Amino acid sequence: MIRDATVETDFLVIGAGIAGLSFALRAAKVGTVTVICKGKLMESNTSWAQGGISSVLSEELREAGDTIEKHIADTLDAGAGLCNEEAVRVLVKEGQATITDLIENGVDFDKEDGKYSLGKEGGHSERRILHAKDTTGREIASSLVAQAQNHESITLLEDHFAIDLITSSRLGVVTEDRVLGAYVFKNNTEKVITFRSDRIILATGGSGKAYLYTTNPDSATGDGVAMAWRAGAKIANMEFTQFHPTCFYNPAASGAEARSFLVSEAVRGEGGILVDADGNDFMKEYDERGSLAPRDIVARAIDQEIKKTGASCVYLDVTHKPKGFMKERFPFIYESLKQYGHDSEVAPIPVVPAAHYQCGGVQTDLYGKTIVRGLYAVGEVACTGFHGANRLASNSLLEANAIARRAFDEIMRLYPPGREESAVLDLPPWNYGDLTPPDELVNIYHNWDELRRTMWDYVSIVRSENRLKRAGVRLRNLRREVKDFYWGYRVNYDILELRNLVAVASLMIDCAQMRKESRGLHYMLEYPDSVDCLKKDTVLRRF
Questions:
Q1: What is the reported pTM?
Q2: DSSP state string for 260-299
Q3: Under CATH, what is the fold of the domain 241-356?
Q4: Average pLDDT of 463-486?
Q5: For residue 261, which phi and psi values (nearest 5 degrees)?
């Protein structure tokens, strides 16, 4: 393994979605910023987001009757009693500032008659979702990437995988634990680079790839949570994985990619109705809001309908909409479905739930600050308390941008560039195993598949004590095998991702076993009701 010389940077941002790039563009005004991305810049969770970003705009731009208090109430209701109300109030009130910031960075939201075209999604009482057709995330990501590429103080590094954080405790320093840098593996090379920085921002997204079927890109392997866990940060509420109710189901299509193609919640917001094979609107039996109920309710209802009827899927019906509606309002979804041989204007869309969003994560305050000094987490990787036990649709992009702005302000107050505490310490080289190339890569891929199937079968929409216990036993065995891979073989992306996924999946199971109730996205057969005394975060920390 080749070690490059240590690279110094004022700010090290790990992840290149809306959270990481929003922070980087601010930080670049006062210092050098390095943004590392383990894949390509446009492969983030942000880029894959279809629906939009929720915000109550200024009075002249918002829908008549909408208010900040209504958005707060909708968020708290969706969060099933576990939201941090202060976080909800602060971030919802910063909605207009978030939209203004994105527009100033070149994001072009849809307009109609000179005003922003606002959509409605499940759990929202009003139309308040700004969008760019059905590729809002791509519009945001491409605009921010373009701005970052043109900034002389920002270095963007694709194909660089953060292995681990370097902290003072790792070096045996007994003073307050603080972050000093990170070890980063450069793909398709033999190089591990040591980055030195007193200010590290985790913006790595979620962990959907822990499940067999997910709407997430391949990069969503929980890297930030795993690194923060190993570094001693607190991890909270990992039992709350949101399953998106409407992912295209087509068993004839090749591979899991086609079967996990997301059909945006905005389709239901514009009148799409969930029906069974006979065309019956079954959602009214589960919630008076029908197809526009919050995602946890809709996903469980679909899961129950499939189990009750033995069907492979349910259907999202938009055939009652005018001809050309889908092609005009949702061109990306419409054309993608056509490529898979389905015309949504002629036949209802077959759909099933799939893992979508990580509501828990690295526990932070409302400035993205963790308990490890100098380490911040922003976006889906973090748990601010904003989402509670179930994220309200289109609230994630709002949170990511708002916390990124607040994190920068807090870092400038506490750790402005120029006071480099890590400069006096020698950072040791990355410690690795025997560097023997994997002689049987098939074993790694087998473990990867076993992990995702175990999580899908035992730790998904409906859980039980017995299922969680079985999953825990399998994960313990996998952890031992992956540890052998990590220390015994020459490192590569597959080993690094599998190591992180095993850690994150274990945290999910541990949190789920601790919560003896059903709340939001966590539903237990033995404990079908919520319990007031358990209305608190599930927090884990490695010692």
A1: 0.93
A2: T-B--HHHHHTT-EEE-TT---GGGGT-TTGGGS-HHHHH
A3: Flavocytochrome C3; Chain A, domain 1 (3.90.700)
A4: 92
A5: -70, 125
Strands 314-317 and 118-119, bridge-based pairing: unpaired
Q: Tell me, what amino acid is at 176?
A: E
Which is nearest to 154 in space by CA: 28, 269, 43?
A: 28
Q: Tell me the three state secondary structure of residue 22.
A: helix
Residues of the chain with CATH 3.90.700.10: 241-356
Contact 13, 201 (CB under 8 A): yes
- 197 has pLDDT over 70: yes
pLDDT of the residue at 281: 95
Q: Mean of the per-residue pLDDT values for the chain?
A: 91
Q: Can you tell me the distance from the alpha carbon of 231 to that of 451, in angstroms, rounded to the nearest whole number?
A: 23
- What's the pLDDT tens digit per position in 319-343? 999 999 999 999 999 999 998 889 9
Q: Across the chain, which distance is largest between two alpha carbons, in Å?
A: 70
pLDDT score at 441: 64
What pLDDT score was predicted for residue 45?
A: 80
- The catalytically annotated residue of 295, 405, 467, 515 is 295
Give residue 101's pLDDT. 95
Report pLDDT digits (tens) over 237-289: 999 999 999 999 887 654 444 456 889 888 999 999 999 999 999 999 999 99
Task: For residues 168 and 422, give the distance between their C-alpha atoms in angstroms, rounded to a whole number.
Answer: 9
Both tokens of 131, joined, read 């969008």
Query: CA–CA separation, 539 vs 531, rounded Å?
Result: 17
Structure tokens at 17: 């979605």
Separation CA 276–CA 420 (nearest Å): 61
| CATH architecture of the domain with range 441-541 | Up-down Bundle (1.20)
Please state the rounded mean pLDDT for residues 499-504.
96
**Adjacency order of strands within the sheet including 273-275:** 241-248, 349-358, 314-317, 273-275
Confirm if 228 and 395 have CB atoms less than 8 A apart.
no
Residue range(s) occupied by CATH 1.20.58.100 in the chain: 441-541
**Active site (annotated) includes residue 295:** yes
Q: How far is CA 148 from CA 25, 68, 151, 155, in A?
A: 6, 32, 5, 8
Residue 259 and residue 256: Cα distance in Å, rounded? 5
Which secondary-structure segment (H or E) carries 156? strand 154-157
How far apart are the C-alpha atoms of 25 and 153, rounded to whole Å? Answer: 9
- In the beta sheet, which residues pair with residue 130? 53, 118
Name the residue among 171, 192, 196 with its Cα closest to residue 435.
Answer: 192
Q: Can you tell me the distance from the alpha carbon of 167 to that of 184, in angstroms, rounded to the nearest whole number?
A: 14
Question: What whole-number distance in Å separates Cα of residue 384 and Cα of residue 362?
Answer: 8
Query: Which of 105-114, 225-234, 253-262, 390-399 has the weakest average pLDDT?
Result: 253-262
